[in-house]
């Protein structure tokens, strides 16, 4: 069952990724990518995997150290829960990147590969996107806000 749930976590997120990559201008894509509810199915998988290993999970997150994290991920449900969590957060990051790219008119031919990079290696994808976004904002002369939180919009 754990193997099935492990695979299911990505399969539940894949349709949103596919829309953002291959149909970025399609009307429903913006609505779907704009909703945080897209991660709910993945979070249900996370809960199903996390509940059986909750004591180990709690130990790993409440007193983080490499040993307790290693013990958690050595358990099939523990590794699966961590994977589902990664899938959910990566999807939220990808959705934010997609929405930002549409707002800033970053070309879909650039964003497609960036979103694929984010699926595979989200920290690198996000880092590259933040660089692209900074260049785009600077070129657009975006002085619309002086708020310190302007980078989140």
Give a description of the structure.
This protein starts with a helix and ends in a 13-residue tail after the last helix. About 75% of the residues lie in helices and about 0% in strands. The protein is elongated, with a radius of gyration of 18 Å. By secondary structure, the protein is mainly α. Helix 6 (about 75-105) packs antiparallel against helix 7.
List keywords for this structure.
single chain, 153 residues, mainly alpha, 8 helices
The DSSP helix count reads 8
Query: Which range does the strand content fall in?
Result: under 5%
Overall form? elongated
Radius of gyration: 18 Å
**In whole angstroms, how far apart are the ends?**
40 Å
Please bin the fraction of helical residues: over 70%
Which residues sit in consecutive blocks of at least 5 with pLDDT less than 50?
Answer: none
Structural class: mainly alpha
Q: Helix and strand layout, with pairings?
A:
Elements: H1 2-22, H2 27-33, H3 40-50, H4 54-62, H5 66-74, H6 76-103, H7 108-120, H8 122-140
Helix pairs in contact: 1-3, 1-6, 1-7, 3-6, 4-5, 5-6, 6-7, 6-8, 7-8
Summarize the entry for a quick read.
With 153 residues, the protein is mainly alpha-helical.
């Amino acid at each position: 069952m754990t193997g099935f749930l492990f695979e299911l976590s990505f399969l539940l997120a894949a349709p949103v990724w596919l829309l953002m990559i291959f149909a970025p201008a399609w009307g429903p894509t913006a609505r779907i990518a704009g909703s945080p509810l897209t991660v709910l199915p993945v979070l249900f998988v996370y809960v199903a995997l996390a509940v059986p290993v909750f004591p180990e999970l709690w130990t790993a997150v409440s007193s983080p150290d490499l040993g307790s994290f290693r013990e958690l991920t050595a358990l099939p449900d523990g590794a699966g829960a961590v994977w589902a969590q990664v899938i959910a957060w990566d999807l939220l990051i990808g959705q934010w990147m997609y929405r930002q790219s549409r707002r800033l008119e970053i070309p879909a031919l650039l964003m497609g590969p960036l979103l694929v990079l984010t699926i595979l290696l989200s920290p690198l994808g996000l880092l590259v996107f933040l660089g692209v976004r900074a260049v785009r904002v600077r070129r657009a002369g975006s002085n619309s806000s002086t708020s310190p939180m302007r980078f989140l919009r």
